[in-house]
Structure formats: structure tokens, C-alpha cells
Amino acid sequence: YTRLPTLSELHGTSILVRGNPDLLPEEGVTWEAGARYQLSKRATEPLLWVDLSAYRRDSSKLITFVRSSQ
Fold this sequence. Notes:
Blueprint: E1 2-3, H1 7-11, E2 26-42, E3 45-60
Antiparallel strand pairs: 1-2, 2-3
């Protein structure tokens, strides 16, 4: 995925909240996998089912807010 900086993140929203015009787009990759196992006596009546899911996100150039004393 790619997330572009918002106008607020680039230019700020007030005198107290400053932006950073040098921000680069946030980039990342997301993986998701899932599986289901179903045990049944008959095809129409499940006796037991188990779901397994996994999710991962790797990101770079994250856009974060930094507090400053200025």
C-alpha cells in the first residue's frame, strides 16, 4: 500500500501545529491468510469447525506526529 501525506501533515493546521513539506509517502505490504477445517457427521450438519487466521503488515517511512516544545 501507499499512503500519501495529507495537506495537514504537509502544511500544518494552525500556528501551533506545524506540518512537514518534506514528508514522503508511507509504504508497506500487507499479508493475510486463513484456513478452515470442518468435521461433520453429515454434509448438512457440522459437528466441529476450526478457523485459523494470520495477518501481518510491514511498513516503511511511517508518518507520525511528533510533539515539540516550540
